[in-house]
């Protein structure tokens, strides 16, 4: 029997990511768990309006989304605990600039860069709709077909109700509906 625990925000775990953006001409990093997919080429990043990062995203119209792995979790947790309003977080991660001008974390195994195509302001949040421009994946995390192997990317997941970071479990099964469709399409 299920117990009704009320209006709980319970749609977890979610992948936790570090958003990178240039703010006042320096990289700034912020940890974000409220990310989502809104179409086949666009994602949503939800940032509380007072965050320092929002200023740079609005000004430059671009950001990077870096999946967190266990090796970088301490640093990721740190950039989620202090604000760029008070602390310069630019040197927390070694980074490379994308050709579109956004900082990308070197030790992240998967980084997406994208441009802002819309901002949906809701309650106290700027919900940035980001169209994907490029996707960088550690070659060691690509399988023989050149596809992303998420067991090797090993993204950290976040559980907000318990304030815990979780690891990914293994493969449970194959998604036959999509696999069969691809076969019949080819
Ligand atoms: C695990 C975790 C997840 C977080 N997820 C979000 C989020 O989805 N949206 C958000 O606005 N802030 C989120 N935060 C809070 C920001 O990372 C934090 O307030 C940060 O210091 C803001 O930095 P900034 O002011 O430099 O942008 C999260 C923090 C942690 C620790």
From TrEMBL:
Keywords: Flavoprotein. InterPro entries: Flavin_Rdtase-like_dom, Flavoredoxin, Split_barrel_FMN-bd. Residues 9-151 form the Flavin reductase like domain. It comes from the Bacteria. Its cofactor is FMN. The keyword Chloroplast does not apply. Transmembrane segments: none annotated. Gene3D superfamilies: Electron Transport, Fmn-binding Protein, Chain A. Belongs to the flavoredoxin family. This is Flavin reductase family protein. It comes from Candidatus Fimiplasma intestinipullorum.
